[in-house]
Amino acid sequence: MSRRKKEKTNRKVIFLLLVSFALPGCGSARHDQKYSETKMLMGTIVKIDVCLDQARLSEIKDAYVGVWKRLEDISSRMSFFNEHGDVARINQSGLNPVSVGEDTYDVLKESKGFSRLTDGAFDVTVGPLVELWKESERNNSLPSQEEISETLSAVGPDNVQLLAEQHVRLLNLKTRIDLGGIAAGYAVDEAARLFRRQGITRFFIDVGGDIYVGGKNCSGEPWCIGIRDPRDVSKIIDIVQVTDKSVTTSGDYEKFYVIGGHQWSHIINPVTGYPQEDVTSATVIADRAVATDALATALCVLGGEEGTKRIDALSGQYASLIIVKQESGDIRKWESEEYKKYKYKK
Ligand code: ADP
Ligand code: MG
Question: What's the pTM?
Answer without folding.
Answer: 0.93
